[in-house]
Structures are given as structure tokens and as C-alpha cells.
Amino acid sequence: MSPAVPQHCPSPRELDDLELLTSGALAPLTRFDEPGSPITLTLPDDVRLAAVEAGAVEIVDPEGLPLARVAVPGGGIEALTHAQYGPFRDHYLTPAQVREAYPGRTFVPVAGPITSSQLEELSSRGSLALVALVGAGTPSLSPVALLRATRLAAARLPDAVVVAVPLATHGDADADHALGVQVLATYAGADPVYALAETEDDEFPDDIAAVIDFDQPPADERGLVLFFTGLSGSGKSTLARALMDRILEQGTRTITSLDGDVVRRNLSAGLTFSKEDRETNIRRIGWVAAEISRHGGLAVCSPIAPFAETRDQVRAMVDEAGGAFFLVHVATPLEECERRDRKGLYAKARRGEIPEFTGISSPYEIPTDAGVVVDTTGRTIDDALDDVVQALKTSGYLDLSVVEPNPPVVEPGGAPATPSSVVEPGGAPATPSSVVEPGGAPATPSSVVEPGGAPATTVSKPADLTANPTPEPTQGAAPVVEPPDAEGEGVSKPLNVLFVCTANICRSPFMQLAAEHHAAGDPTLAFDSAGTHGFRAHEMDGVMAATLTPRGISGVEAFKSKPLTRDHLAWADVVLVAENDHRSFILSEYPEVFRKVFTLGQFAAASAEHDLRGADLLHDLGQTRGVADPALDVADPYRRGDEAAEAAATQIDTLVQQVVSALSSHHLFGKEA
Fold it and tell me: DSSP per residue over 51-74, as a string?
């Protein structure tokens, strides 16, 4: 019986190379591992041994779809199928398909967004094929962003089409240049290839600039993975917890804690403490952290992570996801870690009772690429933490130097917690911000909630919502939603209305400020806004803001944008969005809030058909809901000129007046006022 052919999912670079090899784009190259060629396939030792025995390895994509069978040894390729999914897949054509579909065009390689001056340069070149080089490591934007930007550029040219070619880099500039010339010549055939002139011009058309801004946000708006590494007992978990508390106190970012023990119980259950399983555990942590960063979140991890290769793999995952990776090496010496060892683990390891124990019987590879190195020996938590805080500020990723002054949180019958004086393992300071284990509930409204955890019973307005407070008798005080008392009567609260658009710089801030204007200080209503892909602390768009003054609406100077979080949705009694797409986005991420999310137009139209007002109206509409009519959406006016902004402002102002009128009502839980 023939040995089974092993399967292997290679690196993104190798997958790109495979696609070019099977499409004929690298002709005369047709296989991996040709002498002198940078097109190689690296197999893990166990896969290589099995492949040599079977004579081949089956290459699969990340979803497990078999793409090709590669001879081992030899590198010859038998194509099984081509990748069938992915953004703009219809632009990925073989050289033969391109030559047949687009003859007589000038082929222009594109590895970055096309500037305004380059567009002018191309406008006189006739029929063009813009070849977006989207392979791993090649484009200056993400592959999807480069294709979006190139499609927008093509739309501005007299006659241009876009072709996607996954030409990857291989760490050798000369070899990569030669490959690029070879691939472009194969695609163009007899047609000319035109290289864009190098330019220092960084001016882009507005629509292309928007793609760049979304793909490459400022450092402090990117998703971030804070990765603490160090020996057991070094103080890395203590520092990580203290840093999370500091971030929560500032109130500008949400956090996911990927603590080692929590992860082992939930993400990596069943793994042992063998070297292989420990590395698998770290890679799983890294994958989850990278996905969090992909969506603009902040993940904090504190595994031992002793091996440089695994740390590099996590960094690569985060980079591929578009996030930022910040490595904190807690370099407390082994002797100090042993001194602190309360569980006796080091002593057991020295007696041989614990095999492969890092620092004793298994090595710790000291990082050479840490963003900051901290030795906690003899230092207070705050002192050691300051090293991390300063390094994060210098990096541009996170500035924790300014924290809004807040009174200490005091639990009933208790006193404010005081920090521990010296960093010890397990000795993290008790603070009002705590990590909630799965199934648990935080002690305070500012707790971090792990997957499966529950938010605190008391739902306060999220800290970042207080950046745009609804006017209250005491300036800056945030409305608080308290739970009903035991009898369900007598506890007053405002109705909390959250407006949502995409970036929280155009439509939703107009909704919020207009609502505050029309509510005229009504204490039964509180308003705020956020964006499904909201910028952090940006001012309102100037063109849209200019439509407020003629309407007598103020408050734009104090406005700062923010991204939508679960805390915002928990605070809100009703969520009013600009478009049905925003509603779909929210419900896909937070399906539990389906009874209180409406488009602004949908809610205004539905409320006009009811005699009910205030909380009774919300309850009734939450039961019936209905389908949002796209005709009632408020179109995005961003970067579409004064006319589009005025049209959106007029529509929003009319709808908001209807909404405020429908919701304004003094009320109590359990009975009418």
C-alpha cells in the first residue's frame, strides 16, 4: 500500500509563487527549487519526511482546499485547482487570459497608490492595463487596498483596466526585480510595458486618499498587540495587568486580555507543557491577537514565549493583519525569578521533576527586537510600568501620559484600592479595573470582559462617550443607567440614544449635535455617537460641520470621534444608524441588540405611525421592528462637496426632529411620572 501523501499549507509568499508557476507567469520556470531560483518551497521536517516517502506533497490553501501536488524531491507541480475566493478574485487572470482579453494595451506595473501627477502622466498614454502587484511583501498598501486604489485610478483614466498579479518578494532586491521584469513581459507579450516615473509627489485624488487613510491609519489608531515575554516570575503578567488598568483608566481603547492561564482553559485546552504544545499555544494566542488587531482592537498577551522563531511568527501574523506588534521583554534575571518563586516550580525543575522548564532545562532566547526592555528587580510596579508607558509614547502607538482626573472608585462599604509597592509574581495591584474570567462578572463598570464573560450589572456610559457629554447641570457629568430597584419602581433615568455612521465624523456627529439642540436640555434624553469603523479623537468633517451654524446648532468644537464598542451598545436604549449597512454590521457583530437598532429614517417613519412616546414607543417598536427601507438611508456625504453635505444635513435635521419629539417624555421605571 502506497504511503499517504501529506498535506501542507505554505506561507503566503509560497502560495503566491505557486499561483504564478501554475498560471505560466514565471515561464520558463515551471517548478519550485530550480537551481539559482528564489522560487523555493520549504517544508517542515515531519512533512518533508512523509513527502519523500510518498514522493509528493499536496499543497492546500488556508481553508484546506487542495491547490497542487508537488513532487518531492524535484519540485515539479501538478495543478489541481486555482484559488477560487478572495476580494477582487475576478481581476486575477492568467497571462494567456490577459493577452486574449486586453490586446494592444500598454502594461503599467503598480506597486503603490497612483498619485495625481502620475495620473496626469498616464492620461496621454492611450489604452492601459494597470498591473497591480499584490503578492506578499510587494505593495506599499495591503493587497486589497492596492486593488481598490488602482481601480479608482483606472476610473479616472480615459481607457484603463486592472489586472491583479500576486508577485511576491523573496528578500533579494536584484532577483525580485528580475522576476518582476520577467512576469510583466509574460503578461504583456508583444505589447509595451511602461514604468511610472518615480515621484516625491504625495498628492492623491480624494477617493484614493480615503483608501490610503483607511488602510494605513496613524500609529495611534492602528490595532495593537502588546506582547510581554520573560521568564516565569519575571513580573510580565503583573506589568501587563497594570498596563491594562492604565489604559482603561484613560478610557480611549478597549482591551482583550489573552492571559496564559485564561487562554489555556479556553483556547488551548488539552495541550500539554511539552515544547511543541507550548509553541502551539503561543501561535494560537498570536492568531487571536492578530485578528483583534485587524479590527482595530488592542490585545495584551503575557506568555513566556521563550523562542525567537515563535515570537517572529506572531509578529508576522499581526503584520499581515495590518496591526502593530509591540514586544515588551521583561528581563528580570533568573536568580531574582527563582527568589520570587512562591510555587516552588524552579526548585522542582532543578530536581528534574518538571522537564523542559524555561531557564533551567529549556533555553530562553533573549529578544533582539523588543520595543522596550524592563528589569523589575527591586522596583515598584509604577516605576517599571513607566518604562513601558514611555516606550509606547515614543513609538507613537499609545500615549498614556494624560489621564483624565477621576475620583477613586469606592465599592459600597469599601475604600479605594492601593497599589502594591514591589513587583512580585501574582502581586498585581488591586484596582477598580479587573480581568473577568469566562462566565464571571466584573466588579466595576470598567472591567475587561474575556470571551464568555458578562458585563457588570451597572451599565455606565463608556468612558470614551464622556468626551462628548450631553449638557447636564454639572458640566462633564455622564448620564448613568442604573438597574431598577427590587420592586422595579421609582428609579429615574434618561433614554440613551446612540447615533452611528461609518467614521463618526460626518453623519452621526450631526445627528448627535442636532438632537442635543432640538432636545433643548430635556433631562429625559441623553445622546452620543460612534462609528462602525470610527476614527479615534478626530474632529468633525469641516464641510459637514459648516452646515451646523446656519441651523443654530453648536457644540462642534468639543466633538471628538470614536469607534463603536460593546460598551456603547450596552449604554444605549436605542441605536439609530445612518444606513441599513450599519445596522447589518452591528447585528452581525452584536446580535443580542437586535431589538434596539434601527436606521434613523426607519425609526422616524415608524414613530410617526404610533401614538406612544418615550420608553413605551421603544418597547413597542422593539417588538415589531420590521425591515429597513434603503430609500430611507442617509447617504454618505464625505468628500462629495457642499451640495451633498447640505442634502444630508437637511435630511438628518428633519428626521432628528421627529425622533426627539417621539422620544421626549419624562418617565420612571415601572410607572409614569
Answer: HHHHTEEEEE-TT--EEEEEETTT
Which of 2, 20, 138 lies closest to 68, judged by CA? 20
Distance of CA 637 to the CA centre of its chain: 25
Burial of 574 (0-12, 13-18, 19+ CB in 10 A): buried
- Three-state DSSP at 43 gives coil
Choose among 26, 341, 8: nearest CA to 175: 26
Which three cell numbers, joined as nine digits, stand for 393? 509614547
pLDDT in tens, 438-461: 333 333 333 332 333 333 333 445
pLDDT 10s digits, 232-281: 999 998 999 999 988 988 888 889 988 755 676 778 777 777 788 888 88
Query: What residues contact residue 426 under an 8 Å CB cut-off, 6+ apart?
Result: 238, 342
Query: Cβ of 1: how many Cβ atoms within 10 Å?
Result: 3
Q: Which residues are annotated as a binding site?
A: 230-237
Backbone dihedral region for residue 251 (phi beyond 0: left; psi -120 to 50: alpha; all else: beta)? left
Q: What is the pTM of this model?
A: 0.55
CA nearest neighbour of 512 among 409, 600, 642: 600
**Domains identified in the chain and CATH numbers:** 7-79 (3.10.400.10), 89-215 (no CATH), 219-405+418-436 (3.40.50.300), 466-475+487-672 (3.40.50.2300)
For the record, the C-alpha cell of 566 comes out as: 460593546
Instruction: Report the candidate in 543, 598, 541 with the shortest Cα–Cα distance to residue 574.
Output: 598
- Cross-strand partners of 7: 58
Which among 74, 87, 76 has a CA at the least distance from the CA of 18? Answer: 76
Binding residues for ATP: 230-237
Distance CA 534, CA 609 (A): 33
